[in-house]
Amino acid sequence: MTVDLEELRRYEERIHEIALRYGLDCFDQEFEICDHEDMIGYMAYSGMPSHYPHWSYGKSHERLKTLYDHGVHGLPYEMVINSDPSLAYLMGDNSTCLNVLTIAHVYGHNDFFKNNFTFKSTRPEHTISAFKSHADRVRRYVEDPSIGIDRVEGLLDSAHALAFQCRRNLAVKKSSRSEQTRRLFDAATPRRDPYRDIHPTPDYVEPDLRRIPLEPDEDLLLFIRDYNPYLADWERDLLTIVHEETGYFLPQIETKIMNEGWASYWHYQIMTHLDLPPDLRIEFMVHHNQVLSAAPGSLNPYRLGFAIWNRIYRDIEGDAPPDHSERTAGRDALFAVRESDRDQSFLRRFLDERLMRELGLFEYSQQKDEVVVSEISDSEGWKRTKETLLANVGAASIPVIKVEDADYGDTRTLLLRHYHEGRDLELDYTERTLAYAFRLWERPVVLETLLGGKATTLRFDHDGFVMKELV
Amino acid sequence: MGAVFRAKREAVADRSATDRLRHRQKIRSSIRENIADIIAEESIIGRSGDRVIKVPIRGIKEYRFVYGENQPGVAEGATGDTKRGDVVGPRSKDGGRPKPGEAGQEPGVDYYETEVSLDELIDIMFEDLELPDLERKQLAAIESLRLTKRKGFRSVGLRVRLDRRRTIREKIRRVRARKKSSSDPGLATVEEREPFHQSDLRYRHRTVEIHKTSNAVVLCIMDTSGSMDVVKKYLARSFFFLLYQFVARRYEAVEVVFIAHDVEAKEVTEDEFFHKGEAGGTFVSSGYRKALDTIADRYHPQLWNIYAFHCSDGDNFGSDNAAAIAAVKDLCAVANLVGYGEIKPRGAGYYGSSLLETFQQIDVENFQTVLIERKEDVWPSFRALLGKDRSDS
Predict the structure, then answer these.
(1) What gap in Å lies between CA B338 and CA B298, rounded to an integer?
(2) If you measure CA to CA, which chain A residue comes closest to B109?
């Protein structure tokens, strides 16, 4: 390990000072020095110092290692955990310049984690201990002779399959049963009708309060946990664990572009005001351009986010190089947006035709055996290209599926509905995922969706999978 | 407050070891399920055992509700010249580059290339196969298995097998016993270094165990006539390659005899059998007769379990059919199992005759036939002949 800790510490002090002067508001920061093997190890477990065991992380580890060993892609410069204090990893094998850049970048993420509204629900002060507690509990179930690895793994497989079928916006509180009841009564009560003299008032229909769920429920794992009475305590606990971990990762998925752009924006501001010696300065520019380089045929979230943050500032303050030491309208705008937006709204509000053209965004689709440019960001096409982008950003890339009824056809069959918005489900994946849902619910599971424009029900029960088109 | 810098914690490096192992186990069972496809890969046929081969297998997928693959997406990198309808590239199956910290949710198709040695692969393949109806014959003198087994402890033995734990236990026992029996109380208080005695020493004892099973011989008979073109020979050899690997692996001392025939048959070496081409017409019966001769010469049916397998394209001279049927019947009378694999690649055109039809007249329990049309059929037909569940087929 060649890292000079004292030197890094000196840089860190100056970076921290600049960050504070620029108005960044961060958790305390901890850095851990590791080598590339450790880094792969951390990456496989999303950076967590402790995490429950599951074969999928072994797969992830092997994949990362293979890609790294074959030089397909290198390791990330930065890996930060949303926790309080924030924890980040620096690789000892990296050059000083790269580690200094990483430190500056990390402070950007740190500020974002602390202030963006989507992270308010993650309780960062408990992150590390919560993951540790999850790991301890899962290990205990694995070691319990009456449970064992096979059953734990089987349950986790099923839970992972449904993990992302949960509420997207955790900043909105889930409505309680009494609130839902009130809404039902509200909806059942006929409106006051100004034409009541000439138009008969509709009858009041008593709402069915025994129906479960009262309103469609998006938290599949929690619903199954609460309404399948045959689950053992350890099974309920595993469902809770998987659900909670999704709750931790969801904000990161929802703000990928903003967050990476934000960290890149600030590392650039900080690094250019750090009075680096000329050789480090040149090395920094090389790395910076690498991080923000276009990925033709793909989309680099660092580049997209960075461009938008710059645009927000310049639209207010003009093109002169910014000085963030003073509060300005531009700086205030940046901080306001980082607090109140997520990728969906961020792109919707600030990604305009000009920027899309500058970035060379285009829409592609698959035709026969080829991928073809189907729309470009010119005056006719940019809106559609943008809509397609929005449909693929963050949690919008995950189909919305809700529990409609736990006692469908009075047979305790679980009725799920796919809220179709133009995209069909992948059938093979759907079949297998339904099998997992069946394994957890232990009764037949039915999914209503549209396939090729036709209403279809997919059913999985003891006899396997059945697909039926509704006429 | 300044940030905290910490050097790396200990023992983080291998925390994924268990998860990796579980993943490997899953891959192994996935290999077992997809073995037919892997066998169909030409690369494994006829290669030496310790070679490491790359097996492309579908990764163990993690299923979720996802959108179908045909959805449009957005990418960057268009220039002023980019027009609608430009081809970006071939349709890809890859789910995009993973980015740090992302809880990879894009499905993609996981292709995973894993390295397996041919030995390991064959082990997996043959796990649940065995030579059917292996009977106990007289003079069961073949060592099928030789292993050394632990068999208790002795006070004499080789130095390398010294069991220190037991030796120390013996010593403690002796010292305790002496102290207890000693009438001199002073002796117990003196803490002296106590030397080992010859009588304390304990050695692990091992014996050699030999499992004996009945003698068995496998006769591989292949049609090498002119009508057996490259494809057919390849299929036949694939079949025999599997058979040979299987027998060599599972039955240490089973003898294998290779017989190649066109209008005449001769016994050949393994190398010739797998690598040499012949030409000429076909008298299937010649192969069977040669097998019968070999059996009469060297493998008396009372002493040997006999297995005969024959691969041909079924293009026999019509005049030979009667002789062939008679020969098969003779062979069935002495052999535990006679297997016939007919190789008829699909779409290869018209065939004058099929021995499968001819052989239908033979109604003997230990005569089995399979049809191999494509390389994917090799493994299922092999299993059909040798699987434990053969009675179902």
Answers:
(1) 18
(2) A429
